[in-house]
């Protein structure tokens, strides 16, 4: 646990063409402030002071999180899909991925190309399941006059999702491996940002209304280990 008198940890500042400040905490506990080009040191200090409690909670949570689960891309290995294991069946041939019940048949001309085939299969599934989840929850927000955000699936290291003011809902590809309850929590969270941009009491009240058990789901999504894909031969990370 971190001490009560929590001093801000070291952080880096990255300046980009953006309009607002953002705080990111990476899986290795690295902290980064993303700032507009013109933000002053005083702006950044004030921003960090306002997020001290959140940062402390986030770092505690990360310290409690188990280390990454290293999965080999190998014949017979089990890889999660929507929280359930799929057994990989590998072959050489044209690039293809076909699921039959709880088995996933992957083929590629060479073993080095298999990770890309697996990731593009996950990505295609993600678009299908994530869109369906957005559709299921969107009518409430449509009735309140919001436009449906456009889905983008991304590999993100520091967050599960985000909602941009330009009308995109960005969801982490890694959600396709987690139980559907986690996906639903993140989708509802991001959609609630259509109504409330911050995480204040009104945001929480809306979450309570849309997904009463969201706190338990948040615990689950943040306690599950990250997954690293490693090559069967070298044990090196490949995706
Ligand atoms: Zn949020």
Provide keyphrases for this structure.
single chain, 239 residues, alpha/beta, Zincin-like, 2 domains, 4-stranded mixed beta sheet, 3-stranded mixed beta sheet, 6 helices, 12 strands, 36% helix, binds zinc ion, UTP_pyrophosphatase-like, YgjP-like_metallopeptidase
Describe the structure.
Residues 19-219 form the YgjP-like metallopeptidase domain. InterPro entries: UTP_pyrophosphatase-like (IPR053136), YgjP-like_metallopeptidase (IPR002725). It comes from Alcanivorax quisquiliarum. This is M48 family metallopeptidase. The chain has 239 residues and is of the alpha/beta class. It has 2 domains: 12-64, no CATH class; 69-230, Metalloproteases ("zincins"), catalytic domain (Zincin-like, 2-Layer Sandwich), CATH 3.30.2010.10. 36% of the residues lie in helices and 26% in strands. It is built from 6 helices and 12 strands. The chain has helices at residues 41-50, 52-64, 114-142, 180-192, 201-210, 214-223; strands at residues 12-16, 22-25, 31-36, 69-73, 78-81, 84-92, 96-100, 103-108, 150-154, 161-163, 168-172, 227-231. It has a 4-stranded mixed β-sheet, with helices on one face. Strand 10 and strand 11 (168-172) form a beta hairpin. Helix 3 (114-142) packs across helix 4 (180-192). The longest helix has 29 residues, at 114-142. The mean pLDDT is 90. The chain binds zinc ion. Zinc ion (ZN) is lined by residues 189, 193, 199. Zinc ion is lined by residues 189, 193, 199.
